[in-house]
Please model this.
Amino acid sequence: MKITRIRTHLLQPGAYSFSGQAVGQRLVIVEVETSEPGLTGLGCATFTQRHRAVAAALEHHLGPFFIGKDPRNTEDLWQSAAANGYWRNGPVLNNALSGIDMALWDIKGKLAGLPCHQLWGGKSRPAAAVYTHCDGRDFHEVADAVRARLSEGFHYLRAQCGDYAGATPAEARRPRGAPPGAYYDDRAKLRTIPALFDHLRAEFGPEVEFLHDVHERLFPTDAIWLAKTLEPHRLFFLEDPLAPEDNEWFANLRAQTATPIAMGELFNHPREITPLVKDRLIDFVRVHVSQIGGITPALKLAHLCDAFGVRFAWHGPLDTSPVGMAACLHLDVALHNFGIQEWATRPEAEYEIFPGLPRVERGYVYPPEKPGLGIDFNPAAAAQWPCDDNNPEWTVARLPDGSFHRP
Ligand SMILES: [Mg+2]
Model:
């Protein structure tokens, strides 16, 4: 059995509004064909801000490396492909590799006649509990969103006010000549977010499980102060309190607060993650599965975390494609140390493009039961949603004086 062809599909289904800017998420889907008639696999290689770089890596470098090889040897193929360029790692190459790796696991499940979770231990639970997002410009809008989601059966809710920023500074506060960007006020965020959770707990009581995403928007000491100040509100977790460049601060954060910490959507390399796991400095690792290279490294990371009492909560925004979400769900139900799954409301267009994409049912998502990842792909429907090349503004985060700040 051989890999005979690798095709890359770029698409941008639906649209949603982020900071007032209408954007759709650009998805990169990989289709691997084999010498067995009808036996193909699908994978997610989505790096939505650099989609064409991933497509080029697949077309010119990784694709040719895989052609002619046995698709069943997922471990050796991942190891050899990851180092085939000698210089390795990084979001472009890892996502490209993930696209093929997920497709090979999809193929393996189809060969076995089993859904992927059965390859990794069967069901530790029937479904994955998910958290979804409640955003608003003020506390009342956030509370309205919380009320609506609770009535749909969600139990875990990520509450944000003013997107990730917490507060947008008035234009008058900017100096003359301030460059364009997504402005936010880190000092105002420190005042706003504790008050937001005072408001939500007063209205909804202690039983709702709230989460909050700092999205690396604070300076380290301020992030520690926020984690301590939110401690009485018993968050399910505080997400990405620090940027990956500030990993050494985690020991300090951990020593000062029992607020559970989730970290890692920007991580690429195991060496960024393993110190935090082995020293038990975080409670949840929440890497983006395609960003670290796909299912093969995600399985290893989840098992490593299990040995240290750390749970996993894979990153699950709209730029994790439906194929990528299926991979997450199979891992979620199979592995013992699952924490929770992030779930963004999917654009309706995706249900036509990706038959088998599940929907939320009372706060849970059930994995597909067909062999493999259990998601199909309709190229004709995908062709209705071509990709643009716009640069997103939200990644150019600026403080009130115009300084760039890493998002
Ligand atoms: Mg996040």
